[in-house]
Every structure is written in structure tokens, then in C-alpha cells.
Amino acid sequence: MSDFIIGFITDWGYLGIFLLMVAENLFPPIPSELIMPFAGYVAANGDLSTMGVLIAGTVGSVLGTSAWYVVARLLGLARFTWLCNRFGRFATLSEDDIDKAQHWFERHGSLAVFAGRLMPAIRTLISVPAGLAKMPFGRFLVISTLGSLIWTGILTAAGLLLHENYHAVEAYIDPVSTGVVVLAVVIYIWRFITWKPIKDIG
């Protein structure tokens, strides 16, 4: 799995990182916890620049999470609930997920968006209550970008560190990365099977 991700990023460059990060925020095929460290590793090899990797990852992440904000804001509570009930199974978007993100946003406001971008459990979902609450898009965009920049920066730095110590962890990299993806797929299948229609997220 590590060879596949590294090869994809090497072949597609910044565009590949951007597309993976957009997809990760819309429908996570590969988690950012693997994308950005391996992107940092490729940068350390000299194939890409660290700044370019950081920008591509951040822009992709912000675009992906902004899509959820825009959809929630344009549709409003009733239509967004209808949409989730129609297609939520495929995104494994549950009532409990949205409810937690909404309560977090109501309690912390703008800080919830910033902190949420650093928390794997609600990184994307925090955009939904922000959109439903009609948080000014400019403020949402700035806060999301700052949070995403920090998150992608930490993961990219991990990739640079990985490159420096590759000889010490080489035997574990592929099994661990494969395990992470397999676990993500298993969780997705479980959530897909156990998904229930959303009654009320207000």
C-alpha cells in the first residue's frame, strides 16, 4: 500500500495530492494520515517541494470540507436532512455524527471549526453545522484554512521525519499503511450496514 500511495503521488505530483485530499474530505478512500506523510516523504526524496506539498494538501483539504459547508448552507436543515436520508448510507453520515458536530459548533462557535479541522473524528463534519448556521463564508474559509494548514503541516513533517529514519522502520511501513486502509474499509462497511435514516438534526 505504501508503494502504491508513494507511486501515485510521485506520478501525479501536486495534482495527485490535491485530488486525494479533496476525496478524503468528501468520501475517504485513503485517510489524510497516510496521504500527507507519504507526500512529505516524496518531497524529502527531492521529487516535490515541501512548500508545494503543503499547499496542495491544504487547498485540497479546504476545498473538500468547503463542499459540505456549501451544501448544508444552500439546502438548509430540512432539505439537508432529506438528502442525508436519501444518500447518507453511502457517505455513512449518521444522525449521531451530525448531532455531535452540531453541539460542538453551538458550544464553541468559530473555535469549533478551527479545532475541528485538527480532530480526525469531526474534521469534515464540522463544516455541516457551520453551513446550517450560515456562518459567514469568509470567516469559515479563513478558519478552515488555518486549521487545515496546521494539520497538513504536522502530517507533512511526519513524512520528512519518516524519510530520515526510513531504514529503521522500513519493514513496518507497508504492513501498517495497508492495515490502516483495511481498517478504514472495514469501518466503512460496518457503518454502511448499520446506517439508519436521520430523523432530526435540529
From TrEMBL:
Transmembrane listed as a keyword: yes
GO cellular component: plasma membrane
Transmembrane segment boundaries: 12-30, 50-71, 140-163, 175-193
Main subcellular location: membrane
Stored Pfam families: VTT_dom
Record domain VTT: where: 30-159
UniProt cross-references to InterPro entries, sorted A to Z: DedA_domain, VTT_dom
Keyword Hydrolase among record annotations: no
Places the protein is found: Cell membrane
PANTHER family: ALKALINE PHOSPHATASE LIKE PROTEIN (PTHR42709), UNDECAPRENYL PHOSPHATE TRANSPORTER A (PTHR42709:SF6)
UniProt protein name: Membrane protein DedA, SNARE-associated domain
Source organism of the structure: Devosia crocina
